[in-house]
Amino acid sequence: MVRVHHLENSRSHRVLWLLEELGQPYEVVTYRRDPATLAAPAALRAVHPLGKSPVLEDDGMAPLAESGAILEYLLQRYDLSGRFAPARGTADWVRYLHWLHFAEGSAMTPLLVKLILNRTDKAPWPVRGILRKALMPLRVRVEGQIADQLAYMEAALAQAPHFAGEAFSAADVQMIFVAEASAARGGLNAGSYPKLWDWLTRMRARPGWQRALEKGGALRLGF
Ligand SMILES: N[C@@H](CCC(=O)N[C@@H](CS)C(=O)NCC(=O)O)C(=O)O
User: Fold this and answer.
1) Domains in the chain, please, with CATH?
2) E-strand spans in the chain?
3) Whether 183 contacts 189, CB under 8 Å
4) HSE-up (13 A, CA, CB side) for residue 134
5) Of 5, 45, 48, 52, best ligand 1 pocket probe by most atoms within 8 Å of the beta carbon
6) pLDDT tens profile 22-41
């Protein structure tokens, strides 16, 4: 039996979503974030030494961390007819590989730094003012990187309706967290990046995503 160790409001929504699209039965173990630090509870460390989510268990295998690796595992084990990845060796497959890895390998880093910068804005005065001034060069750089990657995603979706081409794939599943984080703190909206926004609207409307939200709780990233 597939078991997902799922932290509320997190990357593990992706795993629930792919399992819903696959129609694969699974069990969800839900963990709550610390309201002050947003950290995962210590109980997750008992499941995997990194103490982060998602973690997947399946038929007695060692617990698997990293959302991209989990999606690939699920496809190789449960998508035997290849519904959620383009055929190997095609141009779409190369696109698929790129976006599957771009999400965590590149896109999330500046979005995470922006999250940390936003939290320094909640420090008491005068610390807030000092931090704001000292961190301004970093903020400018990070916001520039976020804008660059949003423009890059927008250009890809001007060519095709999904990240790996015509068809929906696990690359779209992996990219939703990037898009949701960009909507929460990166300046993504209908006016700024209309193709990416349209893609996000279509992904949010998929019944599989809706069922993932019912099981995993709402995804609200405006921390
Ligand atoms: N690259 C990893 C990142 C895992 C990760 O950072 N997960 C976050 C949730 S979005 C987490 O568990 N945070 C809680 C913590 O660090 O305490 C993946 O894609 O699975």
Assistant:
1) 2-84+211-216 (3.40.30.10), 91-206 (1.20.1050.10)
2) 2-7, 26-31, 55-58, 64-65
3) yes
4) 9
5) 52
6) 999 999 999 999 999 999 99
